[in-house]
């Protein structure tokens, strides 16, 4: 089986995440994509929204998409989330499957700063998802994906919510309703 791995803080998960990942799943013939929310990104200082709320939003966003699942491995551990630890866990969970880590160009550009990045390349494949604004070469062993992109970010969604500006169109309807019901990201 070919399994995609897509990690992030997902604070909140938005349509840009879903569309990009679905397009990569189709283009690369992935059988499954595992969404792995991070407890705390090693590259970010701000604390994300609580784990239960982020996992609820992820479940709502991926519901109905064949082969989309969530794994809370990183949330269930203490401390910062390192991809190396997650890769070791996934290799144990799926020993006979091919793993493909889905990443953005920002992650690709900083990959040499990742914890045990050289070992990671031996453990899984890496697909770099390009944005429309990206104009860069992707070097082997990384694989370039020119998938459909919706230019939106979680930061934009949080800012719009805080400022009282429209943001519903960036989210799955159930995620939007969850945010409103729980008064997330408001000033």
Features:
187 residues; alpha/beta; 6-stranded parallel β-sheet; Rossmann fold; 7 helices
Descriptive overview:
By secondary structure, the chain is α/β, with parallel strands linked by helices. It has one domain (2-151): HUPs (Rossmann fold, 3-Layer(aba) Sandwich), CATH 3.40.50. The protein has helices at 15-27, 51-62, 83-93, 105-109, 117-123, 154-163, 173-181; strands at 2-8, 32-37, 68-70, 98-104, 125-129, 143-145. It has a 6-stranded parallel β-sheet, sandwiched between helices. Helix 2 (51-62) links the parallel strand 2 (32-37) and strand 3 (68-70). Helix 3 (83-93) runs parallel beside helix 5.
Q: Which strand order do you get reading across the main beta sheet?
A: 3-2-1-4-5-6
Using the coordinates above, name the CATH class: Alpha Beta
Tally the helices: what do you get?
7
State the end-to-end distance: 45 Å
Radius of gyration: 16 Å
Could you give the topology of this structure?
Layout: E1 2-8, H1 15-27, E2 32-37, H2 51-62, E3 68-70, H3 83-93, E4 98-104, H4 105-109, H5 117-123, E5 125-129, E6 143-145, H6 154-163, H7 173-181
Parallel strand pairs: 1-2, 1-4, 2-3, 4-5, 5-6
In short:
With 187 residues, the protein is of the alpha/beta class. Helix content is 36%, strand content 17%. Strand 1, helix 1 and strand 2 form a beta-alpha-beta unit.
